[in-house]
């Protein structure tokens, strides 16, 4: 493959540089000089005419390449010019590199698939990477939605440097493609480990607690310590990846948003079962919405099973929280704990985490703790925990007020 770069200088027509597979470089000025040398000798007039033809062919190729580059540039989702990709180590990849890395996006390299994108395992410069390719088919409105998700991931991940946030390495937007390149996380999603059914591996409480604390630290970074306030809005086990040391890394920022104070939306995005009631009912999202999602994950980790299976056609929203609340108020919280954990030496810590989970899934957002508060509760056994209130979320409709519990 030949990669060509064009530069225009004062007092010259410009120069182009081509690199072939052997790494040799050729410049237009060198070619013109070579042609002039041929013209100085009558013995090389024929060679001179041939050289002029080569120059003309080169200029035509340069124009054709520039035309395609311009087309690709016009089709790109908007990326702010203020972001210095070189300083951040952020790469812009060619589509041919993406095809080569994934063996032309072969099914054998597919490691994840969702409604909007497919994730492939690949290798670039000897490094294993995860390559997320957004679907570009469908209606115009659908493609616009895909572009918004693509841009949101770039905005959110470009400057993040945290052990519990997946690292974005670069992107590709050539020929209408929308492709993101991430660090490769070998152990996949947390959803496969909650019950052990997907891996045949049961996590002990030390591993589960470390994962819970890591997720909390990642969310706290998004909410308070990254310089801006970011709402993830789709925090769930499948969006938490585990590296080789079982450290959690939050991923999939496609519907994440920058927050001023609160966010009101007409279209509700997220995953049923993990969406906070105020967001589900009236479209009001805040940092407390992510706290609710975290609380559901925390309770699931203790139970050792999901709230509901993704294949369930009509999942009951809030079923996990209701069950946990009923057992806690009846003094039977131990029944909520995964049977494989009931003989753990740290069972008191497990029961404490159940109470923290219930605080996080309070129906009213003002009753939920902030994520820094959650980290203090998890890290310090001396911290006195408040009791969950379980006061219903108030909804005004048709002049009447009702409560969702």
Q: Secondary-structure element sequence?
A: EEEHHHEHEEEHEEHEEEEEHEHHHHEE
Helix/strand-derived category reads: alpha+beta
End-to-end Cα distance: 62 Å
The domain tally reads 3
CATH architecture name of the largest domain: Orthogonal Bundle
CATH fold category name of the largest domain: Transferase(Phosphotransferase), domain 1
Strand content: 15-25%
Mean pLDDT across every amino acid position: 77
Main sheet: which strands, in order across? 4-8-9-7-6-5
Helix count, DSSP H or I runs of 4 or more residues: 11
* Uncertain residue ranges: 1-46, 310-315, 396-403
Q: What percent of residues adopt helix (DSSP H or I)?
A: 25-40%
Shape: globular
Largest sheet: 6 strands, mixed
CATH superfamily of the largest domain: Transferase(Phosphotransferase) domain 1
* Cα-based radius of gyration, to the nearest Å: 28 Å
DSSP summary, beta strand count: 17
Quick one: CATH class of the largest domain? Mainly Alpha
Region (Disordered): 14-50
Protein name: Protein kinase domain-containing protein
GO molecular function, one term: protein serine/threonine kinase activity
Family: Belongs to the protein kinase superfamily.
């Amino acid at each position: 493959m030949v990669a060509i770069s064009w530069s225009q200088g004062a007092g010259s027509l410009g120069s182009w540089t081509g690199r072939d597979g052997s790494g040799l470089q050729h410049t237009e000025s060198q070619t013109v000089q070579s042609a002039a040398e041929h013209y100085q000798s009558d013995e090389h007039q024929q060679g001179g005419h041939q050289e002029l033809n080569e120059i003309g062919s080169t200029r035509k190729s340069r124009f054709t390449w520039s035309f395609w580059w311009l087309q690709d540039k016009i089709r790109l989702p908007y990326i702010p010019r203020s972001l210095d990709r070189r300083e951040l180590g952020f790469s812009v990849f060619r589509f041919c590199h993406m095809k080569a890395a994934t063996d032309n996006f072969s099914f054998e390299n597919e490691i994840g698939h969702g409604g909007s994108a497919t994730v492939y395992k690949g290798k670039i410069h000897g490094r294993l990477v995860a390559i997320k390719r957004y679907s570009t088919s469908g209606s115009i409105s659908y493609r616009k939605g895909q572009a918004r998700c693509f841009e949101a991931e770039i905005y959110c991940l470009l400057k993040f440097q945290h052990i519990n946030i997946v690292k974005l390495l670069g992107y590709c937007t050539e020929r209408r493609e929308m492709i993101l390149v991430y660090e490769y996380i070998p152990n996949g999603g947390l959803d496969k480990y909650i019950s052990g059914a997907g891996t045949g591996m049961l996590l002990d409480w030390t591993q589960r607690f470390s994962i819970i604390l890591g997720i909390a630290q990642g969310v706290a970074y998004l909410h308070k310590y990254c310089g801006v306030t970011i709402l993830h809005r789709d925090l769930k086990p499948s969006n938490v990846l585990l590296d080789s040391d079982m450290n959690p890394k939050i991923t999939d920022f496609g519907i994440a948003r920058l927050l001023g104070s609160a966010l009101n939306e007409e279209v509700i995005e997220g995953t049923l079962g993990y969406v906070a009631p105020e967001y589900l009912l009236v479209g009001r999202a805040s940092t407390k919405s992510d706290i609710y999602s975290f609380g559901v994950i925390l309770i699931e980790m203790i139970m050792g099973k999901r709230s509901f299976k993704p294949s369930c056609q009509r999942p009951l929203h809030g079923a996990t929280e209701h069950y946990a609340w009923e057992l806690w108020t009846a003094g039977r919280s131990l029944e909520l704990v995964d049977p494989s954990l009931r003989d753990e030496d740290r069972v008191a810590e497990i029961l404490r985490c159940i109470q923290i989970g219930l605080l996080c899934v309070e129906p009213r957002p003002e009753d939920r703790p902030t994520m820094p508060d959650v980290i203090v509760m998890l890290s310090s056994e001396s911290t006195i925990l408040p009791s969950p209130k379980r006061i219903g979320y108030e909804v005004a409709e048709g002049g009447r007020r009702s409560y969702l519990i």
